[in-house]
Design a protein that fits this description.
Two copies of one chain form a homodimer. With 227 residues, chain A is of the alpha/beta class. Chain A contains seven helices and ten strands. The two termini of chain A are 24 Å apart. The structure holds adenosine-5'-triphosphate (2 copies) and magnesium ion (2 copies). One magnesium ion binds next to helix 1 of chain B.
Chain lengths: 227, 227
C-alpha cells in the first residue's frame, strides 16, 4: 500500500543544504506493522511526513494505494490524508484553546460526521486511552503524557486504513505504553497498516519489521516474530 | 538544599478540583541526584514546577537553600530561578522564531553576560550535545530530539547549582540518551544537585535515589548504587 522509491528530501536554508533523506526506498504491504528506528536527526520524522502526504520529496516517487501521490492536487492530497491516514505527531500538534474532546472530534468534523456521533466517538476514543475524566481539559491543563494520549485518540477516531505514529510513547510510563501498544496491535489484527517511529527497543518489538535509518539512508530492514 | 513539606497543589477548573499533589514531602541534599518516576498524570511535572519556583503550592512549605520560597517577591523568585536553577521542560519551551544559539544564550543575557562571552558559551553548550552544525536553525528546522537537546543546553549554559530535567531523554535514541546522562553525571560529580523526571528505568538508574509518585503522593523513595 506504501511504495517509496529512491526518495530524497533536501531542506534549503540560505546557502546551506540539509540532506534529510538521501535515497530511501520502502515497500509496506497492507496490514503490515513496521517500526522505524535511528538516531536523533537521522530522518525518521521527515520520512513520516512524506508517507503522510504532509510534505513532498525533492526527488523519487511515492505511490499510496497504487496512486502516484505527486500527481494529486492539493485538495485531493488533503482528502487522502483526512480519509485514509491517522497521524500521531511527535510534538502532538493539538489545538491550544480547544478541549481534549473537541481536538479528538476534529477529523470527524472534516469527514462530515454529525455532531452527536462525533461526540460519542470522540468520548469513546478518549476513554480507550484512559482520559475519560479529562474530556474538557485544554492541552495546557493536561500532563505531557495526557496530551500525547489525546493526539493518539485523535489519530484513531476516524478508523483510518493507515496509522502513522511518531514516538507515540515518548512521554508515557511503561504501563500506559503497554496499553497503547496493545491498542496498536488490535489495529494490526483488524488489517490496519501501522508505521511507528520509536527510539525504544521495547516498543519496536511489537512490530513485525524494524527499519533503521542513519543519516537519511536505510541501513537495515529486518523481520522477526512480533511480541 | 530542597526542603518540601506536606505540599499540596489543587487546580480549580470551574466546579471541578484536580488534586495534582496531595501532601508531598521531600528533602534533597546539595549534590544529590534523584530520579522521579510515576504514571502519566501522577503529578511529576507539577512537583517539578514547584521545585523550580515556577508555581506555588496550594498548602505546605518549600525552603530552597534555607529560604522560605513563599516569602520571596516575584522579582526575587525570578532572580533565584535565573541564577540558581536550570530547567529542561517536558515540552522544551523554546522561542519559536529564535535560532538554537540565541535560545541557549537567553539565560546568560538575563544574567548580564556580555555578547561575546554569551555566544562562546552557548556554542560550547550546543557542541556538547552534538548540535554544533545546527546553531542557526530555528526550532521548526530541528528534529524533535534536536529541540530537546537545545533545551538541555539552555538549562546547563549558566552553570546552575540545581538542574531540574523533566523527561530529558523522551525524544532521544539510546546512544544520545547515554551521552546526555553522562553529562548529568559529570554535573553531579561537580556538586550540582540534579532532579530528573523519567519514565524509563534505564535512565532512572543513573541517579542514586528514585522517588515514585502515584496520584499525587510519594509511594516509594529508595536509594541504590548509581550506574
Ligand atoms: N493547569 C492545569 N489545570 C488542571 N489540571 C491540570 C493542570 N495541569 C495539570 N493538571 C492535571 O494534574 C495532574 C498531574 O499533572 P502533571 O503534569 O504533574 O503529571 P505528570 O506526572 O507530569 O504526567 P506525565 O508523565 O504525563 O507528564 C494530571 O492529571 C493533569 O490532568
Ligand atoms: N525545516 C527544516 N529545515 C532544515 N532542516 C531540517 C528541517 N526539519 C528537519 N531538519 C533537519 O533534517 C534532519 C532530519 O530531521 P528529522 O526530524 O527527520 O529527524 P528525526 O530522525 O525525526 O529525529 P528525532 O529522533 O530527533 O525526532 C535533522 O538533522 C534536522 O536538523
Ligand atoms: Mg523526529
Ligand atoms: Mg509531566
Amino acid at each position: 500500500v506504501i511504495e517509496i522509491e529512491d526518495v530524497t528530501r533536501v531542506y534549503h536554508l540560505g546557502d546551506v543544504d540539509v540532506h534529510a533523506l538521501r535515497g530511501v526506498s520502502l515497500r509496506v504491504e497492507r496490514g503490515e506493522s513496521i517500526a522505524i528506528m535511528g538516531a536523533s536527526g537521522s530522518g525518521k520524522s521527515t520520512l513520516m511526513n512524506l508517507i503522510g502526504c504532509l510534505d513532498r520529496p525533492t526527488s523519487g516517487t511515492y505511490r499510496l494505494a497504487g496512486k502516484d501521490v505527486s500527481r494529486l492536487s492539493a485538495s485531493e492530497l488533503a482528502r487522502v490524508r483526512g480519509e485514509r491516514i491517522g497521524f500521531v505527531f511527535q510534538n502532538f500538534n493539538l489545538l491550544a484553546r480547544t478541549s481534549a474532546v473537541e481536538n479528538v472530534e476534529l477529523p470527524l468534523l472534516y469527514a462530515g460526521v454529525g455532531g452527536h456521533e462525533r461526540r460519542t466517538r470522540a468520548i469513546a476514543a478518549l476513554e480507550q486511552v484512559g482520559l475519560g475524566s479529562r474530556l474538557d481539559h485544554t492541552p495546557n491543563q493536561l500532563s505531557g503524557g495526557q496530551q500525547q494520549r489525546v493526539a493518539i485518540a485523535r489519530a484513531l477516531v476516524s478508523q483510518p486504513e493507515i496509522v502513522l505514529a511518531d514516538e507515540p510513547t515518548g512521554n508515557l510510563d511503561s504501563r500506559t505504553s503497554v496499553e497503547v501498544m496493545a491498542m496498536m496491535q488490535a489495529l494490526v489484527a483488524k488489517g490496519i497498516t501501522v508505521v511507528l517511529v520509536t527510539h525504544e527497543p521495547d516498543i519496536a518489538q511489537y512490530a513485525a519489521r524494524v527499519l533503521t535509518l542513519k543519516d537519511g539512508k536505510v541501513v537495515s530492514d529486518t523481520r522477526h516474530e512480533p511480541v
